[in-house]
Specification:
This protein has helices spanning 44-61, 91-96, 121-126, 175-187, 218-226; strands spanning 2-9, 41-42, 105-107, 110-113, 130-138, 145-156, 163-171, 209-213. It is α+β, with helices and mostly antiparallel strands. It has a single domain (2-59, 106-226), classed as Alpha-Beta Plaits (2-Layer Sandwich), CATH 3.30.70.
Length: 228
């Protein structure tokens, strides 16, 4: 079954997707990730990892027997080797892959889209798209601040009615797998790091996906989930 899903993530708050120390040339301790041309993105790998976590949570809630990622020794096919099922893969690994099984899906980077109705192209280039936020490291043992541990992180300044767009393409074997994938997208509420500091929330009122292939409506999704 050929699959093509348009993804549209609209943040409520600023986002932090770490791209390494000083990657943006700002001299901060942890810069936000971007393309070589400077365009801010949510990497496809980051989106895939977050989506996998959501699908795992949903699958367990529905009583599905799935492996224990992310440690390779606890993932398929090793997870079932001592089981009567023998050499097989759980529904999560069939969708997202494992160290021994390539995922049938491809996840593109989610690209920061210019809000066309608000800014002209030349105005958009001049707007500052990130900001630097300070923080203090907290000891995990004493629960108090660590002396001389001030740090600075660069975050995406998303307070401009913007969105990130990308695609999921590939092939899935069953409509059950497609239903789980779409349910995971619908369940996404946050992405990125520093969520305990109020970053990364996703606008849940925004339409986060559009199924281009196959012809799959929300009513079909609900029917498939009822069969589970």
């Amino acid at each position: 079954m050929n699959v093509e899903i348009q993804v549209n993530i609209k943040p409520k708050d600023s986002l932090f997707i770490g791209g390494g120390s000083g990657a943006s040339g700002t001299g901060v301790d942890s810069a936000t990730v971007r393309r070589p041309d400077g365009c801010l993105i949510i990497p496809g790998s980051s989106f895939k990892g977050k989506l996998r976590s959501e699908c795992e949570r949903i699958a367990r809630a529905l009583g599905e027997d799935i492996c224990l990622s992310p440690k390779p020794e606890n993932m398929c096919p090793h997870y079932f080797l001592n089981d009567e099922k023998g050499m097989c893969y759980c529904i999560i690994c069939k969708i997202f892959g494992s160290p021994w099984l390539k995922s049938p899906l491809s996840f593109t980077d989610l690209i920061w889209q210019r809000p066309y109705f608000h800014f002209k192209p030349e105005e958009w280039k001049r707007i500052r798209k990130t900001e630097v936020r300070p923080g203090v490291s907290i000891s995990r043992y004493t629960r108090v601040k660590i002396e001389k541990a001030l740090f600075f992180k660069e975050v995406m300044n998303t307070g401009m009615d913007i969105s990130f767009e990308g695609k999921i393409t590939g092939n899935l074997e069953t409509t059950k797998e497609l239903a789980l994938l779409i349910s995971g997208i619908r369940a996404l509420l946050s992405i990125g790091g520093m969520k305990s500091r109020g970053l990364g929330r996703i606008d849940d009122t925004n339409e986060k996906y559009r199924v281009i292939k196959p012809d799959y409506s929300d009513s079909k999704l609900e029917e498939e989930l009822k069969k589970w």
